[in-house]
Amino acid sequence: MMKFKTLKILSICATALLLASCGGKITASIGGTVSGPGLSTSNSMVLQNNGGDNLTVTGKSFTFAKQLEAGTAYNVTILTPPVGQSCFVENGLGVVEQSIGNVNSIVIVCTELTTASDDVLGTVTGLFTGHSVNLTNNGIDPITVNGSNTGNVNFVFPAPLATGAAYNVQVSGPTGTSCKAKINTNTGIIPSTGTIPLVTISC
After folding, report:
1. DSSP E strands: which ranges in the chain?
2. Alpha carbons 133 and 171: distance in angstroms, whole number
3. 150-179 residue pLDDT tens
4. Are 119 and 91 in contact (CB under 8 A)?
5. Do residues 28 and 68 lie in contact, with contact meaning Cβ atoms separated by under 8 Å?
6. Do 85 and 97 touch, CB atoms closer than 8 A?
7. How far is Cα 126 from Cα 117, in angstroms, rounded to an integer?
8. What is the value of pTM for the model shown?
C-alpha cells in the first residue's frame, strides 16, 4: 500500500513539472513570435513585460526571463522598436491561467516604414566627462548621453520617425541632474522636406 501511494505522488509531481517543481507555486513563461521584415543583432527590438524585465529580441521568437505565477497579469509592450520599422503588439495583455500553462500567443507585428522618415537628434551642452544624462523621445526610445572634455555632446535617437510624426524629447535622469531640454527645440513635427531643428539640452 505504501509503495502504491508513493508511485501516485510521483505521478502527480511529474505532471506538475511542466510549470513548476512539485510542491512549489505554479509559474508560466511569457513569450511569442515576431512577424515582419526580420530582426538581427545589429537591428534588434527591446520589449518589456509589466514595465520591466527588458528583453532584447533579435529573431522570430522571444521568451521573457521572468516567469509569472498563475493568476498574475502580464502586459507586453515595445520599449525600443527596430530601426526603420513600425511595430505593434497583438495579444499583449492577459492573465496567466493555470490550466493553459506557458503563454506563447503574443505576436509583435512589424512593417517597414514606407514613408519618408528622419532622425531625431541634437546636442547636450555643459555635460563634462564623468557625468551623463538620460533622454527619451515621446516617453520611449531611451538613450544615455555621456559627457566629454569639451562639455558638448551630440546625440541621435535610434528610432527614426516618419514624416508628420510628433517628437517630444525629455530629460529622464539621472536623479539630481540639472540638465533641461530647451523649450521650442525639444518638440515638433517631422517635416516632409529638410531636417528637424537640433534639439538642445542644457546642463
Report:
1. 27-28, 30-35, 45-49, 52-57, 61-63, 68-69, 73-80, 85-90, 93-95, 103-112, 117-118, 121-125, 132-137, 140-146, 152-156, 161-162, 166-173, 180-181, 187-189, 199-202
2. 7
3. 888 899 888 888 777 888 898 877 755 688
4. no
5. yes
6. no
7. 30
8. 0.48
